[in-house]
Amino acid sequence: MLGRNGAGKTTLLNIITNRIFPDTGEVLIDGIPVKENDDALKKVYMMSENNFYPAGMKIKEIYRWTKEFYPDFDTEYANKLADMFELSLNKTVKSLSTGYNSIFKIIIALSVNTPYVFLDEPVLGLDANHRDMFYRLLLEKYSESPSTYVLSTHLIEEVSNVIEHIIILKKGKIIKDESREDLMSYGYAVSGKVSLVDEFIIDKNVIGIDSIGGLKSAYIMGQVPKGNLPEGLEISKMDLQKLFIKLTDN
Amino acid sequence: MRVKSVIKYQSHDYIKAARGYYLTFIGITVFFGLILRGRGTYTIGGYEFLTCIFLFVVGLSSFKEFFLMMLQNSISRKTMFISKLITILFMGLILAVSDRIIILIGKLLSNISENIEILGFYDRVFKSRMSLLNPVVSNLEAIFITIFTYIAVTLVGYFVGIIYYKMNKTLKLFVSIGVPATLFVLLPLFDSMFFGGNLSKFILKAIQFIFNGKNPYNLLLVCVGVIAVCIVLCWLLIRRAVGKDK
Amino acid sequence: MQINFDNERPIFIQIAEWIEDAILAGAFPEETQIPSITEFSVNYKINPATALKGINILVEEGIVYKKRGIGMFVAAGAVKKLKEKRKEQFYDNFIRKLVDEAKRLEISKDEVINLLERGYDHEYRN
Questions:
Q1: Which domain holds residue B13?
Q2: Which stretches of chain A score pLDDT less than 70?
Q3: Residues of C with CB below 8 A from A128's CB?
Q4: Which of A24, A144, B113, B125 has its CA 20 to 30 A from that of B198?
């Protein structure tokens, strides 16, 4: 799930996990309304940027209680991950740095084994090595388990190959909800002389324009046109980051 | 099944707090008992009052952290609240029994040593009632009434805790100063200015009614009333409470 | 094992091509096992569905096949098949682009042929 700051990513996740209430509408999980419903709620785990764990609690105690509330929590696996990330289980939540605050929650998210796992800005404060490790572990876990993982992030470049499906939020509304392949297949850029580009884009769905001097690039949503292009125009694919920026620009 | 887990989590906290409370109490008693040996008397009158203060504080401080932890673990507010009530009930029961035992031991000690005097609040207030009944029945009755008192006090603390959670900082400060100021300054002032002292007379009468030495069931009635009101108000507040950012 | 994904083409196609290259280079001989979907996914930080899609292209073409419960194996005759396929694509992938660029730079046909010969000579010298 992608969106700019303030687009409503965390708000949506908070509503899904019954932490706050929607003004209108309802959230269903496997067809069951989730609001105040323990049976639906136990299918979800949300790793949030904000800390909801008691500040004075030791990480190993948190893991013990997580096992109590989520019986499928894999303590052994969690301990293994803690070892890999060099997280000391005897530390309390409040004594952890921003990075390790994310890490101890990432570990729960990867070990909790609920059908739906939501991760809100999971790599916040993580260094490059730990981020790399996280994505690899997530993919490994995802390959081997049937759970759905929802990542909310604005670090698009990092996740663009990792994800399978993309939801883009803009000002509280979902503006795109489709597979990564589909979304990527019909965004492209066309560049060339201003006059040529202007002529080309007349009947196209243009989502953004850059121009330098006499050159112009137009970003277009739609299938790349088959057949020959007018001489002097060049077509290139847009990467997810570019696509995202153009879609969510004001 | 989730209720069981939540009760387990909640009582873990409460038991830890209660253990601390009793250890501190016993520690202080032993300490003063020793240094005052032969030089004076260490008296605790109205011992249950201490427990009430402890329970009020426990109730007060047990909302926020617990609420957020439960939200994090996908527990519905309904389950949280039911578990909370059951935990408070058990806590009241256990503490009422333990306190009665402490008071009885205290009595025993007072008989042996001149230095220590531990008196129960209940025993003092309802002295005439207790002298009417045989010791077993009167002590059981004391436990029964104390349970309700403890539950009521904890719930009042809990209720205040939720209100505090829901308020922002300025409002919190305002209430923290405003409520005591109203109770101890404005009310007596208004009383003398507008009601000609009738208000304080009424309050005095109410207190006399509640702590009627011959009839502890007035106290019980008031506690049941307080418990009912608190349960309704707490639920109304929790039902719409949201996980705050910080 | 490193793949530098470009943004021009879908990742699953690039995965398939990378495996093809590896088979052609002899890194995965015929009748040997290739890495699993999870290994591809974790190693290259790509979604397992993408890796699966890439490998499925090769399965459809009969380059690799699945042994139930064990994994994916390079088919017998895969190298030969691949060479044929690549030869077919050679004109589209290289010659057309070469001619287009030559025209743009106004390099004559003869000059191109000369350059080609130079390329071959260069290679032989090395």
A1: 2-166+211-239
A2: none
A3: none
A4: B125
